[in-house]
Amino acid sequence: MDPILIAGGGIGGLGAALALSRAGHPVRLFERAAEFREAGAGIQLGPNVFHMLDRLGVREAVERDAVRPDALVMRCAVHGHEITRVPLDGMPARFGNPYAVTHRADLHRSLLEACQSRPDILLETARSVAVFIEDAQGVTVRLEDGDCIRGSALVGADGLWSRTRQVVVGDGRPVVSGHIAYRAVVPMDSLPEAVRENRVTLWAGPRLHLVHYPLRRGEVMNLVAVFHSDHYAEGWDQAGDPKLLWRHFDATRPEVRDLLSRIETWRYWVLCDREPRRGWTRGRVTLLGDAAHPMLQYLAQGANMALEDAVCLADQLRVHAGDVAAAFAAYEALRVLRTGRVQTMARVFGEIYHAGGVRAELRDAWLAGRDPEAAREGMAWLYDRPRWPGDAG
Ligand code: FAD
């Protein structure tokens, strides 16, 4: 049997390799980078992703390093008051799974090790997919180094700047949001006692916010500072100038500025997404994760969605046994409204976090009156386990 080819070895590509292999398909995965590596720092895991971790057989490994915070807390970055708080201890009772945070390198490593333990997954680094040709029986991929590889299908998990997408969808460049994320991880014991809490805290301010939460059993703190700027073009994972960050956070609370001032080395990301759309499948080729539906990170769901995609894709291959094109079409049809909703709502949440003036007052008044159960219920559309044909777990 020709293997299913995967372009990209991020969280989405490795998740897909694992899901497909566990469903009985041999896989050959090409990663452009010289080694498997996950850039960035923390990642939030909603209850919706835990069923996927179970299905992929990596839950135990992921939970070993993850932290379960007590609450999500939103505070005003300008005046300091608490805007709202969602306790997280009720998540397992309501959604059957917890809310957790982890280092993305730890999540990526758990997936990688699980892939490496399976003889039917061939992982190749420093192998960049250049182009592909599809026919009725399969797909031939040409790599940058000139090699041509034959597979039964191709999954483009090659991220925001996906080349596979350029052939399948051909819709040009992603939307540059003008939102810049500065990220850092610092040892917990270098921070003041008052901020060493086991919670996800979001300081919301006009056109900016700061999020921090503990990682690696509470040994380090993850910080993400976001502000609006048209100063940056398309940078990704580069060293960020702290002075520029401080200037944007000039008018924020001393607690916020104190936290920012303790970090010397920041990396920055220019945040991009796309309008949701159909059409990311063509015959035996489909897209997955950020290649299919890149989203702003304000719902903390991009990687969660990629892992849902991975499990759904493998399930559709089982349901449509032998008919890859039908399985891929079913996969897209099952995923497009859910991922499109998250893409859309992520932008809305960004507006809510970054509100200023009267809009900020309206937000605070609206959120102040909410009880925690209603807050939790308001997220059921996202955190409830998604259902699709063939989900055996
Ligand atoms: P990527 O991680 O981009 O992986 C693509 C891979 O493909 C890369 O390894 C790349 O080298 C490789 N590649 C590219 N081109 C080729 C080629 N031609 N041939 C071969 N290989 C190629 N998500 C969450 O779920 N929770 C969060 O809390 C969260 N927080 C975030 C915070 C920030 C600031 C940002 C920017 C994102 C956040 N996300 C979060 C989103 C999440 O990081 C992404 O959605 C997720 O990592 C996408 O995974 P992916 O595998 O689809 O793409």
Automatic annotation (TrEMBL):
Source organism per UniProt: Paracraurococcus ruber
Residue intervals of the FAD-binding domain: 4-320
Cofactor (UniProt): FAD
Keyword Oxidoreductase: yes
Gene3D superfamilies the record matches: FAD/NAD(P)-binding domain (3.50.50.60)
Keywords recorded for this protein, A-Z: FAD, Flavoprotein, Monooxygenase, Oxidoreductase
Designated name of the protein: Salicylate hydroxylase
GO MF annotations, alphabetized: salicylate 1-monooxygenase activity
NCBIfam families: PRK08163.1
EC number of this enzyme: 1.14.13.1
Domain of life: Bacteria
Enzyme class: oxidoreductase
